[in-house]
Amino acid sequence: MDTTLQILIKKVSQLTERLNSLFESSKKIHELPSLLGNSEDLFIAVSDGVNTGKKEYRPSEIDREEFDDATSISLERIEGTNTIELKNGKGDVLSTLDIGFISSASLILSADSEDKKLVLMDEEENILSFVPFEDILLQPTHEYYTITESDLLNTSIEIKLINFPSLKEPITVYINGLFVNPDDFVLSDNILTIQRTNIGYDIKEGMKVTVNYKY
Question: For the chain, what are the domain ranges?
Answer without folding.
Answer: 64-101, 104-136, 138-214
